Amino acid sequence: MRDITLTSVADPALTGFDAIIDVRSPSEFAQDHLPGAINLPVLSDEERAQVGTIYKQVSPFDARKLGAALVAANAARHIAGPLAGYPGSWRPLVYCWRGGQRSGGFGVILSQIGWRVCRIAGGYKAWRRLVVGRVQTGGIPAPVIVLDGNTGSAKTAILSRLAARGVQVIDLEGLANHRGSLFGAMPGGQPGQKLFEGRLATELDRLDPARPVVIEAESSRIGALTLPRAVWQAICTAPRIRLSVPVAERAAFTARTYDATADAAAIVNRLRPLHPADRIENWLALADRGDWPALAEGLMRDHYDPRYEKHRARFGDREQAVVTVDRLDDGGLDSAADAVQAALNAWANTG
């Protein structure tokens, strides 16, 4: 079994394997893992706790003896189960918390079968250090331009169209699995902070530094997740292209694309400290009868838009272009993407 040392989050060495296997416990894997990794735990959460208790309360020797027996038993279960159909040419890469006994024991067993196994030196801990270095201090390795626009301006949909045309983009809301507003929750919930940072670091590592990258304007938080310092600073200091879309069109687009939620009343009630009682009651009545376009328009006019304008005033000197969008159907989104791409090219040529 050979150890490989990663030098970047998206190290090319990671692409030469048929599978990346995380042998840590399910709870460790759920918190964060390498992109594309599968979880074949050699110790369950309960077994890991049991071994740790014996290590502290009895002796390291007894803990290692029990751990070895459990690793062997779980390895046998994986070999007879999910790994049963792989041929002798199969090449797995394995890792555990810090490249120690769990990945070492599993890797030796797989090697004895005849598979060409490699292990990540330093394990997950080494990869996590690379992630933190990239997102917290490393910055964005390409020129950044921010796609701005009030709530409901279809920024994410336009980003998707730009990406399909070969423009470099990073979809922060996609990585965070959240649309970034009170009603922005998405099925499946958000990843943990560490998992989000790992996804983001991988995207950053894959950027071509010679080409600009378009990122949607965000606050410092997307749902429950916090944007890492270097990324947030890059957004704050980058030039901007702003979408200008009529509020009624934004409201209609939001009503079409956001799932109507049974929690609308609870979400509106959270805004009571910020708005007059009669406005809150009007919004609650709209939610009660399911009038999502009217509710969306009311929230945009009186809650989101004033806050966006106040926030945007801090970045007025960075605005490079304003793209007027009259409609947000498929044709309008295509035209908006055309105009944003033209503004992006004009900015790149003057830079």
Give a quick precis of the structure:
Helix content is 50%, strand content 13%. It is of the alpha/beta class and 351 residues long. The N and C termini lie far apart (50 Å).
Tally the helices: what do you get?
14
Task: Tell me the helix content.
Answer: 40-55%
Mean pLDDT: 93
What overall form do the CA principal axes indicate? elongated
The H/E string reads EEHEHHEHEHEHEHHEEEHEHHHHEH
How can the largest sheet be summarized?
Answer: 5 strands, parallel
Overall number of strands: 12
Poorly predicted runs: none
**In percent terms, what proportion of residues is strand?**
5-15%
- Based on helices, strands and strand pairing, what is the structural class? alpha/beta
**What is the topology, as strand order, of the major beta sheet?**
1-5-4-2-3
Cα radius of gyration in angstroms: 25 Å
Distance between the termini: 50 Å
Keywords:
five-stranded parallel beta sheet, alpha/beta, single chain
Walk me through the structure.
This protein has 351 residues and is an alpha/beta fold. It has 14 helices and 12 strands. The protein has helices at residues 26-31, 45-57, 60-80, 101-113, 123-138, 155-164, 172-176, 193-205, 229-237, 247-257, 264-269, 277-288, 292-312, 330-350, and strands at residues 2-4, 19-22, 38-39, 92-95, 118-120, 144-149, 168-170, 213-216, 221-222, 225-226, 240-244, 319-324. The protein has a 5-stranded parallel beta sheet. Helix 4 links the parallel strand 4 and strand 5 (118-120). Helix 3 crosses helix 4 (101-113) and helix 6 crosses helix 14. The mean pLDDT is 93.
